[in-house]
């Protein structure tokens, strides 16, 4: 029998509706909070450290990472806008693509396609919708050298992850 070891409790302010590990940064986890939270939180799972949180103004019902770009897609349920899906750049969380639904449309869950290029979403109107979000290219390399400063938001965490930045000589 395998031993199970409890590591951390990562706190939101409401039910956690979404979670996804980043495919190109193995200890980066994104989580999405329900109606009374409405935040996407980013965690360093080796230490349990909250790296950042981003307020969305809606219930976050799913999050999925791109394998090809430093981007994350979130879907939404109840909220103060009619956006049902937004693709954000990471780590600055700038919207790159927004899908607006009809009034009352809510996304309940989603799943990435096997190619990681499309997202299928289940909605409260008894339908499944499929959106092509990314072109299939070469996935982002998971080697530490490809990470830019700011992936974790902390030089100490980056050091523990093996991310080393070359010093540029001053002229």
Give a written overview of the molecule.
The chain is mostly beta strands and 171 residues long. Strand 6 and strand 7 form a beta hairpin. It has a 4-stranded antiparallel β-sheet with strand order 1-2-3-4, with no helix packed on it. Strands 5-6-7-8 form a 4-stranded antiparallel β-sheet, with no helix packed on it. A 3-stranded antiparallel β-sheet has the order 9-10-11, with no helix packed on it. It has a domain of 91 residues: Beta Barrel (Thrombin, subunit H), CATH 2.40.10. Helices cover 4% and strands 42% of the residues. The N and C termini lie far apart (60 Å). The protein has 1 helix and 11 strands. The radius of gyration is 17 Å and the shape is globular.
Low-confidence stretches: 145-149
Strand order of the largest sheet: 1-2-3-4
The share of residues in helices is under 10%
Q: Beta-strand percentage? A: 35-45%
Query: Class of the domain at 16-106 in CATH?
Result: Mainly Beta
DSSP helix count? 1
Give the overall silhouette: globular
Tell me the total number of β-strands: 11
**Element order: H for helix, E for strand:** EEEEEEEEEEEH
- CATH structural fold name of the domain at 16-106: Thrombin, subunit H
- Quick one: biggest sheet? 4 strands, antiparallel
User: How would you state the average pLDDT, rounded?
Assistant: 87
Radius of gyration: 17 Å
CATH architecture of the domain at 16-106: Beta Barrel
| Oligomerization state | single chain
Give the gist of this structure.
It is built from one helix and eleven strands; from the N terminus they run βββββββββββα.
Question: What is the strand and helix layout of this fold?
Answer:
Blueprint: E1 16-21, E2 28-33, E3 39-44, E4 49-55, E5 58-65, E6 71-79, E7 83-89, E8 95-100, E9 107-112, E10 118-123, E11 128-132, H1 155-160
